[in-house]
Amino acid sequence: MADPRLKDRQMTCGSPQCKREWHRRKCAQWNKENIDYFRANYLQKKLDRAACDSRSAMPLLGRVVGALLRRQVQEVIGVQQLIIIDYLGRLLLRRFQEAIKVQRSGIARKLSQLPPS
Fold first, then answer.
1. Vertex 24, ends 91 and 43: CA angle to 5°?
2. What is the pLDDT of residues 13-30, one digit of tens each?
3. Looking at the whole model, is its pTM more than 0.85?
4. Which of 21, 53, 60, 67 is the most buried (most CB within 10 A)?
5. CB 112: neighbour CB atoms within 10 A?
6. Which residues, 6 or more positions from 22, have their beta carbon under 8 angstroms from its beta carbon?
7. Distance between CA atoms of 20 and 16, rounded to whole angstroms?
8. pLDDT category, 100, cuts 50, 70, 90?
9. How far lies 80's CA from each of 47, 49, 113, in Å?
10. CA torsion angle for 102, 103, 108, 109 (degrees, to 10)?
11. 2: part of which helix (H) or strand (E)?
12. What is the radius of gyration, based on Cα positions, of the chain?
């Protein structure tokens, strides 16, 4: 139901479901526009935890560094540097996967344009 006091500023009909959906969409939009904010916080939190206790940082490391012997690498370059390398490896992997996905869709599009054999 429209509220005449709100005029063109009204975003929802007023029902709880409608308000919830509007809030969900606005949050998703904000998260998409501010993705670097979360990436920076994520990395900083890992680094802060590693600075407090080097043993607590070990489970935080992901699969990129997982194949290496973490303890030996950690002794040589340090926990914080290892976390940064792991983080950058994840970013590179994600970008690589996105590029492959785009190429794959382009190839599929070109294949669909070929005449049937």
1. 25
2. 878 898 899 899 999 999
3. no
4. 60
5. 7
6. 11, 12
7. 6
8. very high
9. 6, 9, 50
10. 70
11. none
12. 23
Two tokens at 95? Answer: 């970008």
| The residue to which tokens 């959906």 are assigned | 21
Closest CA to 62 of 90, 36, 101, 39: 90
Helix (H, G, I), strand (E, B) or coil at 23: helix
Tokens describing residue 50? 């590693």
Q: Is the dihedral of CA 32, 38, 40, 43 positive or negative?
A: negative
Q: Which DSSP state fits 6?
A: T
The position carrying tokens 């382009």 is 106
- Measured over the CA atoms of residue 8, residue 13, residue 19 and residue 20, the dihedral's sign is negative
